[in-house]
Write a structure and sequence with these properties.
Length: 83
């Protein structure tokens, strides 16, 4: 891990800065993950290109305020009865 001087965010070794907005790197399990420059973990996927494209799309939807149009909840987590 590399610490950036400005935010004290630990950037994983070998991470590529994309669009000067987020990092993408290969994990030790062979997957790819992304993280914003502020340190917020974003996506994990099988390919670097897929994670890059999906992270860009997710951040754009957050910026536009349209993320809720693509979000749905399936089921619920309600536990009935006495625990």
């Amino acid at each position: 891990m590399i610490q950036t001087a400005t935010d004290r965010i630990e950037v994983p070794e070998g991470a590529n800065l994309i669009d000067d907005v987020f990092y993408v790197w290969k994990t030790r399990y062979g997957l790819y993950s992304s993280m914003t420059k502020q340190g917020r973990q974003m996506m994990t996927g099988a390919t670097e290109d897929g994670v890059t494209v999906l992270t860009r799309w997710h951040l754009k939807c957050e910026q536009d305020g349209t993320l809720e149009q693509y979000t749905r909840v399936v089921g619920d987590s309600f536990v009935g009865g006495k625990l």
